[in-house]
């Protein structure tokens, strides 16, 4: 039997066990997937436990960077992003990957998003934004606007990823952003009180929220007027598929709409 899991803190609302156990059932393999809420003081010992007893695991906040020092190898993409969300365990060796990047790429493909000569706005530059900036690096967009509470932090991240044609703006000036082509929320705004910025933003092509909400729109997407929009549920499922493929050395063709229906119950 293969053992898989998610580690992080908190994890009680995570959909990962539902998604991965759907994969397990439909691929007819003998395996299981659970979520562990791991205290930071126990993190090192818990990784040792996983090394000995598990075949693979996902990592969520706040450990996507902390895990690096315990890995034997790191995939090139994960190394350049600076975050790991998937680890494969093989003969006691831990190899780190970043499948969030794959989830972003495939979500944009799924919605036929064309970046050529487009004005792109990204809200936030924390950990969730790192695979997005890696994806945007070198793309033929017209210009990129990053909004963040701390301008200096955004400038540092933009430099780290060698992003071109970038303008950094304080998040407090979000109301001046209107009629961009693509807008992406990589922040946690709205998670606490259900309100994003209490604005109405007009967007030309596509709005993408890395947050997700079952049966309805996220606070961010409620405030964006655009025909084509998506929350992070596709990204979550697509990155999970990639993790499952890495662990099992096999490609899978799961029906995403069936997975969403399964999640919604």
UniProtKB/TrEMBL annotation:
A Pfam family per the record: Shikimate_dh_N
Annotated metabolic or biological route of this protein: Metabolic intermediate biosynthesis; chorismate biosynthesis; chorismate from D-erythrose 4-phosphate and phosphoenolpyruvate: step 4/7
Domain Shikimate dehydrogenase substrate binding N-terminal positions: 6-87
GO molecular function, one term: NADP binding
Catalytic reaction list: shikimate + NADP(+) = 3-dehydroshikimate + NADPH + H(+)
Binding, NADP(+): 76, 148-153, 210, 232
Any one of the GO BP annotations: shikimate metabolic process
Metal-binding among keywords: no
Assigned EC number: 1.1.1.25
Record: active site: 64
A GO cellular component entry from the record: cytosol
Ligand binding (shikimate): 14-16, 60, 85, 100, 212, 239
Keyword annotations: Amino-acid biosynthesis, Aromatic amino acid biosynthesis, NADP, Oxidoreductase
Residue ranges occupied by any Quinate/shikimate 5-dehydrogenase/glutamyl-tRNA reductase domain in the UniProt entry: 114-188
Domain of life: Bacteria
Record keyword Amino-acid biosynthesis present: yes
HAMAP family: Shikimate_DH_AroE
Family, similarity comment: Belongs to the shikimate dehydrogenase family.
Subunit: Homodimer.
Function: Involved in the biosynthesis of the chorismate, which leads to the biosynthesis of aromatic amino acids. Catalyzes the reversible NADPH linked reduction of 3-dehydroshikimate (DHSA) to yield shikimate (SA).
Protein name as it appears in the record: Shikimate dehydrogenase (NADP(+))
Species for this entry: Deferribacter desulfuricans (strain DSM 14783 / JCM 11476 / NBRC 101012 / SSM1)
Highest classification ranks of the organism: Bacteria, Pseudomonadati, Deferribacterota, Deferribacteres, Deferribacterales
């Amino acid at each position: 039997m293969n053992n898989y899991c998610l580690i992080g803190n908190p994890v009680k609302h995570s959909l990962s066990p539902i998604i991965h156990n759907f994969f397990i059932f439909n691929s007819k393999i003998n395996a299981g997937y659970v979520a562990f809420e791991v205290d930071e003081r126990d993190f090192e010992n818990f990784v040792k436990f996983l090394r000995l007893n598990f075949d693979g695991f996902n990592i969520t906040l706040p450990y996507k960077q902390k895990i690096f020092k315990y890995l034997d190898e790191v995939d090139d993409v994960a190394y350049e992003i600076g975050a790991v969300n998937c680890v494969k365990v093989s003969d006691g060796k831990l190899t780190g990957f970043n499948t969030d990047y794959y989830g972003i790429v495939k979500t944009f493909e799924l919605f036929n998003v064309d970046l050529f000569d487009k004005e792109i706005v990204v809200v936030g530059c924390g950990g969730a934004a790192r695979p997005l900036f890696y994806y945007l690096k070198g793309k033929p967009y017209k210009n990129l606007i990053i909004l963040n509470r701390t301008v200096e932090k955004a400038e540092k991240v933009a430099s780290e990823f060698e992003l071109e044609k970038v303008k950094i703006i304080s998040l407090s000036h979000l109301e001046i952003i209107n009629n961009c082509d693509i807008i992406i929320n990589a922040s946690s705004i709205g998670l606490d009180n259900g309100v994003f910025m209490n604005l109405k933003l007009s967007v030309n092509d596509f709005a993408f929220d890395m947050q997700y909400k079952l049966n309805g729109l996220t606070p961010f997407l409620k405030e964006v007027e655009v025909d084509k929009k998506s929350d992070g549920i596709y990204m979550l499922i697509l990155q999970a598929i990639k993790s499952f493929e890495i662990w099992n050395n096999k490609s899978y063709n799961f029906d995403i709409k069936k997975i969403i229906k399964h999640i919604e119950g």
